Amino acid sequence: MGRVVLVTGASRYLGARISAVLADDPTVARVVAVDVVPPRYELGGAAFVRSDIKNPAILKVLEREDIDTVVHAGVLATPHQAGGRVSMKETNVIGTMQLLAACQRSSSVSRFVVKSSTTVYGSSPRDPAVFTEEMAARVVPRAGYAKDTVEVEAYVRGFARRRPDVGVVTLRFANTIGPRVTTPLTAYFEAAFVPTALGFDPRLQFVHEDDALEILRLATVGDHSGVFNAAGAGALLLSQALRMAGRVSVPVPTIASGLTGQLFRRVGLADFSPDEVRFLAHGRVVDCTRLHEVMAYRPKYSTLEAFTEFVRERLGAGPLDVDRVRVVERAFQQALRAPGPAEPPL
Amino acid sequence: MSADQSSDQRDSAGPGAPSGEDLLVGLAEIAGRLVRDLTGPDGVEAAGALAAVVRARLSGEYAVDEFGFDPQLSDQLFAAALRPIYRHWFRVEVRGIEHVPATGAGLVVANHSGTLPLDAIMTQLAIQEEHPADRRLRLLGADLVFSMPFVGEAARKSGSTLACLEDAMRLLERGELVGVFPEGYKGTGKPFSERYKLQRFGRGGFVSAALRTGAPLIPCSIVGAEETYPMLANVGTLARLLGLPYVPITPTFPLLGPLGLLPLPSKWIIEFGAPVDTSAYDDTAADDAALVLDVTDQVRETIQQTLYRLLAQRTGTFF
Fold first, then answer.
1. Do A337 and B44 touch (CB under 8 A)?
2. Contact, A120 vs A172, CB < 8 A?
3. Is the ipTM reported for this complex over the cut 0.90?
4. Cβ contact, residue pair B66, A235, below 8 Å
């Protein structure tokens, strides 16, 4: 008798993909995918149930479907997709609260997996270079998605305390990137001219969408519990990433970071909260030893490889495209080493 | 790697390639021919190598570690820019480099002085320049460094990170050579009249990191940095207003304006002392407060005595 899994946030890309992946998993008997809007992506063998996790009726779904494992993939990072910041916060914080309340009441739920984010560590010049799971944010995020993840995790910790019999897994993903997933950061890299924080060059870490799915799957079907950081090996500097993508960076003074965030939004480049602007100044790197050792999973894509694939699959040639730089350098090298001064090298 | 790869990509760029690219290619060919015609084989090699570095930088083909250390940039740009200052302005004399381990972790503990932390930068360069095993010193800096634009960025790229136990431990566990200045602002911000008098050595955090990882402590005494910017007074009110630890008045600053930022050309000696072995201590040693303070004092006293000896040997401040 396999697991019966409920997946939240199924209308969105990762929610839909994980529903489909779990439906194919031999240890899973049935997958119920829920969201308030119909799915936009293929759900595979998962059954869609239109339901709102913000509504106590979610308990009825849990009981009717006899759910034993809940995968909470419905914490949103993109305000405009969620219908504005207010509704995003409702979905993230109130939704999680109601879902956990229902799980606490439910007699069948024995496992709870939440897709959180490394944004819980905040981003500040006082941060250690690398965060492990035990470390707390030096400067606690005060707005946007980052604040939501902090609150979501606080509710999840409370739930784990009240229901010690339920295995609870919190997955803190670095920025997810890949050929298909859409996040504020992927939108940011899609612009030809990209605003950056003047005088700062943050360290970034990416997790490839395929690795993110596999980690979510392992967390769901496995029997580990606790908090896990999840990121591809290594780190990239923002300047380096922009050069790989052939983007032109436009440094903006960050003294008034609120203003800069507004500017970022105004030019329609990305959906950035002040915390995300701080992230673009100070960056963040996490340690994934627990993922490697306890969950015994090493992401297939390093940060560099994940970003390289994103650039290849997703981005058109930027103004400073890497191939153009190579062609120009090669022309220079050939001319430099051409044999005779009279003979033009072409 | 890229001979075939580039030609493929060139083909794939095909007829639709924009004319701006042709212009750049044309310019590159002209430049290449000019360099070839105007210089000898050495010039061609140098220009070829430079072009490869520029291409690598422009296309992001270089590696940084999780701390943000960019070895290529550090070696080829920062070190090249600082080397004349090291050699000809401060004429740094390095002693006892053999005390710095050739492999594995080590914690270099030094005195801090001179208003701006030039001593940290010069010690980093001293190890890079003089150590036979081509080691790099990873400095631990105050959070103020990392909150300042450009300064924080350059610090991270040159291999520095925040002075906290987590980062120190992580670097030492990776077998890196770590540099720490336990006096902090109290060292750099002390008045000139107190030069070469060591301040309190923090709270011994660096000793705990060494005890936990078994890394040797290498005392490092720096003479000459105190005279770079002699601090006559501190404008405390302005410092509080700006959120800085101090705002110095030196003989040349702010009197000469930006020119006052030029350090006085003192003659420097950097001496590395015999390492203090910590591998004999067990896991509980780092939690033994008395032991930690004891080792802290031992290192501090070694540096203080070395400073007195070096000062007595020194013939003049500037020559």
1. yes
2. yes
3. no
4. yes
